[in-house]
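Sequence only, no structure available. Ideas?
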Amino acid sequence: MCHIAQAAFDVTTVSDEAVRELMNHYGYLVSSISRLKGGFSSSNLHCRCPVDQYLDQSLLLKLANADHSLEDIALQCRLLTLLEKKRFPTNYLHCLLEERWNTSREGAGGEYIDTSGPQYAILLDFCKGIPGDKLLQANAANPEAVATILRSLGSTLGRSPRSDPRAH
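Reply:
I predicted one. Tokens follow.
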């Protein structure tokens, strides 16, 4: 059963040191951290990680709200891995370093979900843009814009795999 998150914790209370430690669990060094506003079931941090001396990679560290269960996050992981297999355009998960895997949960998010801190964490690709719910709110007074947004969403969802993520 999925829970509805009630409120995100204050992401400004998470120290840069704690973020860097979590990112190390995924094998990344961090060159910069931006705390993002919003987030329905988690608080989000945009982390820039050097790939080489010229290039950075943008990643999204999601810290789950306290009322977001491990099972909910594991379902998200199953869904996201299914979408990646189908090459559906979305954020893709990054695995923890193998020695940090929760082998009792392997295949159920154990290779993706960091449970070492006060909030469960997952790491995703960072996709620049505005979340759909925020975009709809900002354009609520403009029916033409809302129709365009919903058509775009419908078109994207129409390409989604038609299978039950719990079956994978």
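Confidence is low (pLDDT under 50) at residues 1-8.
Hope that gets you unstuck.
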